[in-house]
Write the structure tokens for this entry.
Amino acid sequence: MKKDDSMVLDSIFFSVPALKILSGVYLELHHGTITALIGRNGSGKSTLLKIASGQIKANSGITMIEGKRIHSKSLRERFRRIGYLP
């Protein structure tokens, strides 16, 4: 597998007024693998998945798939490569 086949979320920060939801999260996912994201209620799992799928944009950090920034791709191209079922 090439390095470009992975999805990388690096130094992800996300907050809303008066609430810090994600702080410096790093996640690397590889094509063809199954990954579980486990944590307590309210720990930011759904928010991180929404950022990974491009539904919301992180306050800061890098989100890349196949070596390119997620938010630089069109919605059609982004969802051709990412499936997200809440």
The chain has a mean pLDDT of 84. Helices lie at 45-53, 75-81.
